[in-house]
UniProtKB/TrEMBL annotation:
Binds 1 NAD(+) per subunit. Residues 182-344 form the S-adenosyl-L-homocysteine hydrolase NAD binding domain. It comes from Sphaerisporangium album. This is Adenosylhomocysteinase. The lineage of its organism: Bacteria, Bacillati, Actinomycetota, Actinomycetes, Streptosporangiales. Keywords: Cytoplasm, Hydrolase, NAD, One-carbon metabolism. Its cofactor is NAD(+).
């Protein structure tokens, strides 16, 4: 190993150790896996953000007996020092920060070369590549887990079209993932990324949040908490009403575009901010995406409208100058701002998502022979166990049902 790689690996190791301190549940799962070896002899191809928190997950799976090949689930999100550290732990990591699209898919293909028994995905790119380019491997795959909302939408569509060839577990849909990772994780790390990239003041600014789902709610809450005036845009009338009743102003993007200082897309949809919206924006408006890939903000339209482009005016910040001199600032090339300009969700949050993920992998390893192709929920007891362990680690006690209460909840004969 080159001296430079060795120092990179050392920095990565320190980062992983730091993350591990805030992941007591995953540490407990890893210890259990080490004793019971639920993944003995299995090969896993994983496509996840290569971060310190993912390294802790991979360590738990390895302790359970698995051999793992890891590719990144985003071209910009890899922490190179963590990747270097993982290689010294005998994990095949195919990832580097700042790669182009072709290299990103080459890395996914290289991870698939392990000929996996199980797969882990975050956005469905690996599963998609398996079903389109690497069909010769499909017979060997007996199941997998999907980490995020958009990945599960795609898997459900594949299942509906009878295209999905093995069972996939919807880790995102556990309460311990969606309620905390998508909401508090995205809320904090998105603002973290925006502030690291621009050093902008949030207080007193108008922040437009596109999408009021689990992630959007988190971003809106945290922006409001820092003193921003928050506007929400939605296409779902119930979500829009919810945002309104929580005191947010709700507007169509065509109107919000004129007043926003800072725009955050978290919809999982494409073309949410389009040329017609960009044309209305104020000088200095900041554009950030924390939803899915680089399609939520129409970057091609922005490039087409720009008379001048200043790349890298700040780290992860590109300035597009319009014909009349207005400047629009695009963060992280329109890709996930929280994993590109910051470090993704804090380890304390990923502790829950990745413990659910690790326990779901072990469940799948045990049950895969009897599962038909399709999308499966994580068993409810795994969800409850993750929450119980997290509460115990925080020293928080809760009440238990008395026998009379349990009976009351089961009965319909008793009147009021
Ligand atoms: P969700 O389904 O709970 O919310 C998405 C919301 O966007 C919905 O309310 C929907 O009505 C709304 N929406 C759709 N199209 C819209 C449009 N054109 N304009 C305005 N609103 C629109 O999903 P979620 O769990 O909040 O996830 C959102 C996205 O973020 C997904 O792509 C998910 O994969 C991703 N995600 C990112 C992170 C991260 O770390 N950055 C974390 C978790 C999830
Ligand atoms: N691959 C797609 C979709 C990613 S969605 C894309 O890059 O656009 C974001 C997912 O990243 C979430 O489901 C969340 O669980 C995960 N994530 C957030 N912070 C993370 C971290 N610190 N380490 C690993 N994964 C993280």
């Amino acid at each position: 190993m080159e001296a430079q790689d060795a120092s990179l690996a050392e920095a990565g190791e320190r980062r992983i150790d730091w993350a591990m301190r805030s992941m007591p549940v995953l540490r407990a799962v890893a210890a259990r896996f080490e004793a019971t070896r639920p993944l003995e002899g299995l090969r896993i191809a994983a496509c996840l953000h290569v971060t310190a928190e993912t390294a802790v997950l991979v360590g738990a799976l390895k302790a359970g007996g698995a051999a793992i090949a890891l590719a990144a689930s985003n071209p910009l999100s890899t922490q190179d020092d963590v990747a270097a550290a993982l290689r010294t732990y005998d994990i095949a990591v195919h990832a580097r920060a700042g790669v182009d699209r072709d290299t990103y898919y080459r890395h996914i293909n290289e991870a698939l070369d392990i000929a996996p028994d199980l797969v882990l995905d975050d956005g469905c790119d690996l599963v998609n590549t398996l079903h389109t380019e690497r069909v010769e491997l499909l017979d060997g795959v007996s199941g997998g887990c999907e980490e995020t909302t958009t990945g599960i939408i795609r898997l459900r569509q594949m299942a509906a079209e009878q295209a999905l060839r093995f069972p996939m577990v919807a880790v995102n849909d556990t309460r311990t993932k969606r309620m905390f990772d998508n909401r508090y994780g995205t809320g904090q790390s998105t603002l973290d990324g925006i502030v690291r990239a621009t050093n902008t003041l949030i207080a007193g600014r108008t922040v437009v949040v596109a999408g009021f789902g689990f992630c959007g709610r988190g971003v809106a809450e945290r922006a409001r908490g820092q003193g921003a005036r928050v506007i929400v845009t939605e296409i779902d009338p119930v979500k829009a009403l919810d945002a309104s009743l929580q005191g947010y102003e709700v507007l169509p993007m065509s109107e919000a575009a004129r007043t926003g200082d800072l725009f955050v897309t978290v919809t999982g949809n494409r073309d949410v901010i389009r040329g017609e919206h960009l044309a209305e924006m104020k000088d200095g408006a900041i554009l950030a995406n924390a939803g899915h890939f680089d399609v939520e903000i129409d970057v091609r339209a922005l490039e087409g409208m720009a008379h001048d482009v200043h790349l890298g005016v700040r780290p992860h910040t590109d300035e597009y100058v319009l014909a009349d001199g207005r400047r629009l600032l695009l963060l992280a090339e329109g890709r996930l701002v929280n994993l590109t300009a910051a470090e993704g969700h804090p380890a304390a949050v990923m502790d829950m998502s990745f413990s659910a993920q690790a326990l779901a992998v072990a469940w799948l390893a045990a049950e895969r022979a009897r599962l038909a192709p399709g999308v499966y929920d994580v068993p409810a007891d795994i969800d409850a166990e993750v929450a119980r362990l997290k509460l115990a680690a925080a020293g928080i006690a809760i009440d238990a049902l008395t026998p009379v209460q349990a009976e009351y909840l089961r009965s319909w004969r008793l009147g009021s």
